[in-house]
Amino acid sequence: MSADDQRFGLQRHVILPGPLPLDGGGRLAPVEIAYETYGTLAPDGGNAVLICHALTMDQHVAGANPRTGKPGWWTQMVGPGRPVDTDRFFVVCANVLGSCMGSSGPATVDPATGAPFGMSFPVITIRDMVRGQAMLLDYLGIGRLKAVIGGSMGGMQALSWPATFPDRVEAVVVIASAARHSAQNIAFHEVGRQAVMADPNWRGGEYYGHSTPAAGLAVARMAAHITYLSEAGLTEKFGRKLQAREAKTFGFDADFQVESYLRYQGIAFVDRFDANSYLYITRAMDYFDLAEEHGGLLANAFRQTKARFALISFDTDWLYPTRESRAIVQALNAAGAPVSFVELSSPYGHDAFLLDSPEMNRVVAGFMGTGL
């Protein structure tokens, strides 16, 4: 593999026959998975690392995104000489089931009808996403992962991996995540879903070939984006600064800079994401409850695995506050699993895990044995 391949990754797409049994009782067949790989797989397959992405991210973790032209969303974490060093590890990142970046989701074509699934696509859970990733790894000839790493929703998948496949994971890194959603998390997601479904263009999810519910999806993104930030970060960046009067956006003028920023985030999101996928994935996150999946006791989820764990939280993350990570650490301790934990200081709220954080990089590099 050339240096350019390692830096930008190889974009791949596979259609697996399945069927993939789903938690909801149905089956998905065939199973489409879009993914990207970096580095070279060792002859024994023992250097594979799976990166799990967050709600609105994709498989382009370190390679240029062909749709936006922007660099991958975690280039500071994955690459040659990075904490997840692609000179040492073979890195795989797959677009989750239910998404819209090439994997099976509401926008893909239902073989039975020849039309997009829309809202007839089966309900997907976090564990279903993990099973789909396992199916991909089987296809790639990877029986065991050196590590699985994820932040936010990616952290939920990372937690689900050793619980679902206890013998297939050596190490787990969970950043800014939780073992289940709080009522507040669910409430914010429901506001976003209702914004999408209230858009006249949503058409009950049958908008493919018509105008998309852009306004509703933009509002959903704006509401969600507020939860990714912190009050201190917003105050530092925007305060109560007013817009220049010539600056115009849709609807009422954006008098404050923070208004303009949120509107931009909403509009940009509509250009790259599918509204139905947003409904499905947010619902999967809300359904996730790792303790409930294992008899109501979180420690039970980890009793069968020999994996070692590292958890990272941020002190200004009010979406997944540090107490959520501490609850996971306590469950791991109860299960006798080796775990390290650190709370990092950052003014950037939940989004801190996506930004260049030297402290986070050092923690992950040390855990992965790569050094910096």
From TrEMBL:
One of its GO terms (cellular component) is cytoplasm. It is found in: Cytoplasm. Residues 47-355 form the AB hydrolase-1 domain. Its EC number is 2.3.1.31. It catalyses: L-homoserine + acetyl-CoA = O-acetyl-L-homoserine + CoA. Belongs to the AB hydrolase superfamily. MetX family. Transfers an acetyl group from acetyl-CoA to L-homoserine, forming acetyl-L-homoserine. This is Homoserine O-acetyltransferase. It comes from Sphingomonas jeddahensis.
